[in-house]
Amino acid sequence: MRVLAAVLAGVVGAIAGAGALGMALAYILTAIYGSFEGSAAMGGFSIGMPLGAIVGVALGPWLIMRKGGPSTPGKAWAWVAGAIVLLTACGAWFWEYA
């Protein structure tokens, strides 16, 4: 059961990491290079999305399966469910104000 939670954590981590790192690099590169036709933001987003997904896929299962991680499947599922709720809430807020 813990392995299933780790797989789901990898998927959630990939989604969260891709979005977060993509937005962060788009903002940072726009601040550095300017906003000429959005090219810096598009470049940052296209670089940040795959990198964030790779980091999320690696970090999600590691956080669940590590030695000091949640000791029971219930705790692991609670962490994954909390991440899903947080992602949904952030997505709804960004969708409304985008």
Helix content: over 70%
Describe the largest sheet: none
Distance between the termini: 38 Å
In the predicted model, the low-confidence regions spanning at least 5 consecutive residues are none
Number of strands: 0
Written as H for each helix and E for each strand, in order along the chain, the element string is HHH
What is the number of domains? 1
What class do helices, strands and sheet pairing give? mainly alpha
What sort of overall outline do the alpha carbons produce when their principal axes are compared?
Answer: elongated
Oligomer: single chain
The number of helical runs is 3
Task: Estimate the mean pLDDT confidence.
Answer: 83
Rg over alpha carbons: 16 Å
Strand content: under 5%
How is this fold's topology laid out?
Layout: H1 2-33, H2 39-65, H3 73-97
What's this entry about, in short?
By secondary structure, this protein is mostly helical. The protein has helices spanning 2-33, 39-65, 73-97.
Written overview of the protein:
By secondary structure, the protein is an all-alpha fold. It has one domain. The protein contains 3 helices and no strands. Helix 1 (2-33) runs antiparallel to helix 2 (39-65). The mean pLDDT is 83.
